[in-house]
Design goal:
Elements lengths: L18 E5 L5 H9 L4 E5 L3 H11 L5 E4 L2 E2 L5 E6 L8 E6 L6 E5 L1 H7 L5 E6 L5 H4 L11 E7 L10 H9 L2 E6 L2 E6 L5
Parallel strand pairs: 1-2, 1-8, 2-3, 4-7, 8-9
Antiparallel strand pairs: 5-6, 5-7, 9-11, 10-11
């Protein structure tokens, strides 16, 4: 409903994105929306939860130039424990770092590592819906990847992780971003990257 009917990711751009990173890709619907709107783009879809990732892989299989990572997104390499949300819904969970690697933990990847792995020169759109992990993402090592990004589409999660949005807004205030709201998302465009 949010992706295809409410069109929460149908933003207006004056350029055609070449690279999109879908962080918290769930079952791949946002990636499918972006791929249909921008058929020439490359998409990197990141999703940590194994059942979601299995469906995501099937959903994205018909498309070219979509790469998938069964990992959590974090500010640095580590292992993450998946914690089920209180409402116990399959899409409602969050992650926290752990020093113990086990069959119940997942590997985390940073945006810097994604840039290096895929040899990216720019990230035209980064969509971030990572259930509160945005707090960590914007707290550490941001200077290593933010200069690559033109547009951020982010859903914040203060409703169940109070103040988790503060690092994001701190970063916006220190850089030249223009923002507006669209559905549950904030669209932030880095003005220096559009010149």
């Amino acid at each position: 409903d949010q992706v295809f009917y409410q069109k929460d990711y149908d933003i207006s751009l004056d350029f055609d994105p070449k690279v999109i990173i879908d962080c918290g890709a769930n079952i791949g619907l946002a990636s499918i929306f972006f791929k249909n709107k921008y058929p020439e783009c490359t998409i990197i879809a990141i999703e940590p939860e194994k059942d979601n990732f299995s469906i995501l892989t099937k959903n994205l299989n018909p498309y070219n130039h979509i790469f998938t990572e069964k990992k959590g997104l974090w500010s640095e390499s580590c292992h993450l424990e998946i914690i089920q949300g209180e409402d116990n819904l399959p899409w409602s969970f969050y992650v926290k770092p752990t020093k113990i690697k086990s069959e119940h933990t997942i590997e985390a990847i940073s945006i810097e590592e994604i840039i290096e792995k895929y040899e990216l020169k720019e990230i035209d759109i980064i969509k971030i819906d990572i259930e509160g992990a945005e707090e960590n993402l914007f707290q550490k090592n941001v200077e290593k990847w933010l200069p690559f990004v033109k547009v951020i589409i982010i859903e914040l999660h203060d409703r169940f992780m109070p103040l988790s949005s503060r690092p994001f807004f701190d970063i916006l205030s220190k850089n030249k971003f223009s923002i507006y709201f669209m559905g549950e998302n904030i669209i932030a465009t880095q003005l220096d990257k559009l010149n």
